[in-house]
Amino acid sequence: MEILWVLIALVMMSFVIGPMVMRRRAGIQQVAPGDPDAADPANYGFVQQEELDIRMPGPDQDLLDVLDVVQGTQNYRAASQLLAGTDADGERRWQRVQAFAGAAALELQQRPGGVSDAPGGQWLRVWRAEAPKDAGGAAVHAEFLVQQAWRTSTPGTDDFRIIMEEAKAACGDAALLAPGDPIPYIIELSVARGLAYSQPEFEKLWLKILDRAPTHMGAHLAALHYWCEKWHGSRELAYAFAESAAARAPQGSLLAAMPLFAVFEHLPEVNLVSGFYQSEVVTKAIHGALFAVHAARPDDPMLAHVRHLLVWFLVRSERWAEAMSQLVHVDGHVGALPWTLTADPAADYAIFRALAVAGYEANGGSPATLRA
Is 236 within 8 Å of 272 (Cβ atoms)? Predict the structure, then answer.
């Protein structure tokens, strides 16, 4: 019996070591920093790891400027004005609501407050108190509560449920202030996942979003989590949801990339299949995402999200040149999946970027041959 277990262990090790050996044979070898043969991402104009911005997936200078003002002065008015001037049903407004809520949550985490000092994120409390009819402030507050639930509590506990119920009520308040705005309902998608809405309840919520913003990529990504196997659906339901969204995606819509996100959400914890990232399901999803990226508007706020996930899959698939083409567009910002799932998003991204550069150069590429 012991011999059998040894044989099983050897087989398992072969799955892990085999791909490493093959990569060495392909010409990618680890060398010491400074070695003449070392691939250097800086040669391609890429940003140093310590300078990578982990707050957003791509540039939004207006948002960064306003965040600096709000956090520097603890005055919410610049945030209110920015949201009021952002299209209500667009992707960018959703991203900005998330960013403001995340900034307030991070401030509170860093400065929980005490007897002699005010807690961080006080500007959001003042915003709600002084401008209770401000739809932007109501949406940011609802998203803040959602983020607090996930950050500070464990799903299924009383604390988690109490915060999520408060967030649900805040979503309702925000929806009343702006009846045509999809954002409060998009925020509630996370509440639905946390509070385990029944499928009929969830579908009723989803129809409200489709009535207001049927092609909203951020909403589809939030809904996909609910349908995933690890939450309240299954692999089949999640794939069906993603493929349905891709099938009805209008020209230029990034919804064609949804199957790639569904594949990512259902990756095996331990990959024992040789060539998994060259399999038909992964290859088809990658091609759909590449098509979506090529057809999308260059200023689409969700474009960076898709490019970041493509980098991850293309590197895993050893499609080095294509990975480099995506890196050219997103380098500098890493606030997106899959990097944000790790403790150090910048470091994780930098590893994949270095692998892409090494693989690209091992196959004859250079800064002179790189095309975006």
Answer: no
Q: Which amino acid is at 80?
A: S
Rounded Cα gap, residues 333 and 55, in angstroms: 7
Per-residue buried b or exposed e for 215-227, using 16+ beta carbons within 10 Å of the residue's own CB: bbbbbbbbbbbbb
Q: What is the DSSP letter of 46?
A: P
Nearest CA among 232, 286, 244 for reference residue 264: 286
Q: Identify the residue whose tokens are 């609501």.
A: 97
**Residue 269: phi, psi to the nearest 5?**
-60, -35
pTM over 0.90: no
Count of C-beta atoms within a 10 Å radius of residue 277: 19
List pLDDT tens digits, range 96-126. Answer: 999 999 999 989 988 886 655 677 889 999 9
The SS3 assignment for 133 reads coil
DSSP annotation of 342 reads S
Given a contact cutoff of 8 angstroms between Cβ atoms, the answer to whether 224 and 242 are in contact is yes
Compute the distance between CA of residue 311 and CA of residue 322 in angstroms, rounded to an integer. 8
Residues 6+ apart with CB under 8 A from 38: 31, 32
Q: Is the CB of residue 217 less than 8 Å from the CB of residue 180?
A: no
Instruction: Outline where the chain has alpha helix (H).
Output: 2-25, 61-73, 77-84, 91-110, 122-130, 135-152, 158-177, 183-194, 199-212, 217-227, 235-247, 258-265, 280-295, 303-316, 320-330, 345-362
